[in-house]
Design brief:
Biased composition (Basic and acidic residues): 17-34
Structural class: alpha+beta
Distance between the termini: 32 Å
Organism: Azospirillum griseum
Region (Disordered): 17-37
GO molecular function, one term: iron-sulfur cluster binding
Bound molecules: FE2/S2 (inorganic) cluster
Order of helices and strands: HEEEHHHH
Strand order of the largest sheet: 1-2-3
Family: Belongs to the NifU family.
Length: 157
């Protein structure tokens, strides 16, 4: 069962890595922030179209490894249509999933089952600390854009 799940997760990551969703620059974006992985120099620009506190569109461009690209792609699907507060909850939850043991993870607000399942797919990187920066790269940029910053500080990674 665990092997089946791992295989499924790997397929999802490979699919998003090879065919990233929302890899574009929306014409009407009104927030953007750069995220750069200081370990390798890979970087993404994340674009948000934020209207009345809701993320109406989200996309990204840039260069990254398969894990960072897959995670960026999944991030865009997860936060589209969410309020800024909901997107922050997803970011904080995902960050904990990637960096903390189960009993150390905080409650950052409600996350529906479907979204949690998708966050779990990428959080397998917890076993490989060097890849955590890859998986969280676009998420940090998205969070910076939400806060009106133009880049995610590298010491956050
Ligand atoms: Fe550069 Fe993953 S190796 S972002």
């Amino acid at each position: 069962m665990m092997d089946d799940l791992r295989e499924l997760y790997q397929e999802v990551i490979l699919d998003h890595g090879k065919n990233p969703r929302n890899f574009r620059h929306p014409d009407d974006s009104n927030r953007q922030a750069k995220g750069e992985n200081p370990m390798c120099g890979d970087r993404f620009m994340v674009y948000l179209t934020l209207k009345d506190g809701v993320i109406e569109d989200v996309a990204f461009q840039g260069r990254g490894c398969a894990i960072s690209t897959a995670s960026a792609s999944m991030m865009t699907e997860l936060v589209r249509g969410k309020t800024a507060a909901e997107a922050e909850t997803l970011f904080a939850t995902f960050h904990d999933l990637c960096t903390k043991d189960d009993d150390e993870q905080g409650d950052h607000g409600p996350v529906d089952e479907d979204s949690r399942e998708k966050l779990m797919v990428m959080s397998g990187v917890r076993q490989f600390p060097v890849r955590v920066k890859c998986a969280t790269l676009a998420w940090h940029a998205m969070n910076a854009a939400l806060h009106g910053q133009d880049s995610a500080s590298s010491d956050q990674f």
